[in-house]
Amino acid sequence: MLKKLTGKVRLILVFSFSYLLDFGECLAFRSKPQPTPYHDFDYFIFSQRWPLTTCAEWEATKSGNTCNLPQDKHLWTIHGIWPTKTGQEGPLFCPSSIHFNPDELAPIINDLTTYWVNVEANTKLNSFWAHEWKKHGTCASVLPLLDSVTNYFRMGLKWNRDYDIASILSKEGIEPGNSYDVATIYNAIKNSINKEPSIQCVIDKETKESYISEIRICLDKNFQVIDCNPTNPIHRIRFGLNTNCSQKKQVQYIASITPTSDTNYRTIEKEYIDYQGEYEGHMRYLSLYNFLWTLMWLTL
Ligand SMILES: *[C@@H]1O[C@H](CO)[C@@H](O)[C@H](O)[C@H]1NC(C)=O
Q1: How remote is the CA of residue 188 from the centroid of ligand 1, in Å?
Q2: Which tens digits make up the pLDDT trace of 81-122?
Q3: Nearest alpha carbon, ligand 1 atom 14
Q4: Which of 45, 161, 192, 254 has the fewest other C-beta atoms within 10 Å?
Q5: Which of 141, 195, 145 is nearest to 168 (CA)?
Q6: Is the peptide bond before 91 cis (omega within 30 degrees of 0)?
Q7: Helices 278-299 and 2-24: crossing angle, nearest 10°?
Q8: 225 Cβ contact list (under 8 Å, min separation 6)
Q9: What share of the chain is helix, strand, coil (3-state, %, to 5)?
Q10: 166: left (phi over 0), alpha (psi -120 to 50) or beta
Q11: Percent of the chain clearing pLDDT 90 (strictly above)
Q12: Are 118 and 65 in contact (CB under 8 A)?
């Protein structure tokens, strides 16, 4: 009887604490991107990802997650074209009369499934594209060349061919399956496009290893490559090069995901695609939550 009651109380406490924390998180921690009521932007960030790193992150997020990977094991795939205002993230989720209609992707569906692959296999086929359209495409659509779902995705495919990261790196002898100083990778890209790129990594919290995950280049509204502005919070730069990768240790450019290495990725930073500050907020929330939870189990 007493045990039952304790169980109930415990449950109620856990729930009320998690509500409290959710509430606190809303107030203090989470800075979820808000829809912007305007389309004003200065340039584009074109973000390409190393799909194996994305896959490792995805598999680490939840057991049972599976990945789509392109046949061509050297392909860097598209993440998105992100209209950006100098010094800030976004605009995002702009008001637009153009709704995402997957039928419009029919003519380019084969290219999209290869070059703009939705790595997260156990999600709806169109979910990744729908997300990129709603979050970024709606804002880009004020430019004539990007004024439809098809045009937005076609432009991404074109830029993926124009700025072929795998061959840029390969020309400098940078190949998957090795680790490099991020400066080596950075300079290979910079020397090829003659502008400053931005490079993102994710970290394995346990081993502290860095994995290269994204390479971004920036283009103006005439689609000319420009320097990526390191002050934009979206790049999360700490110091030195326009990268959030470790500049003290080499970064991994992985060639495969082996089942044995799977556990290594369990603790990899969950990717909160480009939600500024959300990751930090979430980790704080999690550790606080775990702490309180443990406390309750110990005391009750
Ligand atoms: C680097 O930035 C990306 C995206 O902006 C983020 O997902 C990743 O967690 C960051 N990595 C580090 C090591 O801070």
Answers
A1: 21
A2: 999 999 889 999 999 999 999 999 999 999 999 999 999 999
A3: 244
A4: 161
A5: 195
A6: yes
A7: 160
A8: 163, 193, 194, 195, 217, 218, 219
A9: 45, 15, 40
A10: alpha
A11: 63
A12: no
Task: Extract the tokens encoding 6.
Answer: 């304790």
Tokens 């080499």 correspond to: 250
Q: How far is ligand 1, taken at its centre, from the CA of residue 61, in Å?
A: 15
**Confidence at residue 211, expressed as pLDDT on a 0 to 100 scale:** 97
What was the pLDDT predicted at 297?
56
Residues that are catalytic = 79, 132, 136
Question: Which of 85, 188, 92, 83 lies closest to 145, judged by CA?
Answer: 83
- CA dist., res. 63 & res. 100, Å (int): 30
Expressed in angstroms and rounded, the spacing between residue 101 Cα and the centre of ligand 1 is 31
What is the percent of the chain with per-residue pLDDT over 70, rounded to a whole number?
Answer: 73
Q: Which atom of ligand 1 is nearest to the CA of 246?
A: 13
pTM of the model: 0.77
